[in-house]
Amino acid sequence: MNEEQRAGSDFSGAAACPVKKGVQQIMLGRVCKNHDTTLDALRRIKAAGYDYIELNDFMVQKSSLIVKLLTSFGGMSIGNSGNHDWHRLISESGMLVSSLNSNLGAVENDPATIAELAKSFGTDVVVITGMYRFDYSDNTEVEKLAERLNCAGKALKDQGIKLLYHNHNSELQKVRYGVTAYDVLIEKTDPEYVNFELDTYWMTDGGADVYAIIDKLGPRLRFWHINDRGNREKGPYMTPILKENPTELGYGNMNLEGISCAVKKCGIEAVILETHMNWIQNDPVKSAEVSAEFIKTHF
Predict the structure, then answer these.
(1) What is the spatial distance between Cα 79 and Cα 166, in angstroms, rounded to a whole number?
(2) CATH code linked to domain 3-298
(3) Least confident span in 194-198, 232-236, 270-274
(4) Domain ranges within the chain, ordered by starting residue
(5) Distance from C-alpha of 12 to C-alpha of 195, rounded to nearest angstrom
(6) Is the pTM for the entire model greater than 0.85?
């Protein structure tokens, strides 16, 4: 990215602000049984040191059966979250909203409505969380996706909203020799309209050089999705090969200290915890409380 592009980013100057510390709403799906259990979870999250929550539009509104099935299939139950009054829950818990996750189709179809929903929660950031049933190995399709993101970002900017793109591991598929889909998305999107929420867990899962990606994103890396990767199995083992899963920060094997230093140099606005399974004591809130130690130490 050239200096003109760097200067054009809506996020310029964000480095001077304290980094927001938050959790992804999907972590709390299974405890969102009713208003009281959800409020208790949010208050515990806040007491642990997280002032922000990243919401999902499919969890603050009634969700279709297909959305519930897709999230459950991915090990991320959303429970009864769509039945609750999240404006009231946010207010009563004292939490703030860092951002709203949505999908590209919804933004394209009605950017004003998505923008209005985000603003109603006090945030000016909308995050696109990757594409379902999409061929990230097709260079032409990925370039089209980049253009769609540019158009969506411009439409949201006209509404006073910034757009971020969140990766998983699919973006690491090669579209040609030595070039990934993520490379194309970085190169072909306009920083005036599109920036990034980097999930280093999924990049590590895909075998990528996380530091090279951080360096390439530079000031376009606005939010960091943090997670650790390891195992907590107890011996003796039947095999020397153990399956790795998400785990609490500092209890896995990712160099989160090094990554923290690297992303802070980019001037990130927020660090968002998302551990979507394999929680300590099978409790997502307890897991977040344990992970809070790392975030408070490094941010």
Answers:
(1) 23
(2) 3.20.20.150
(3) 232-236
(4) 3-298
(5) 11
(6) yes
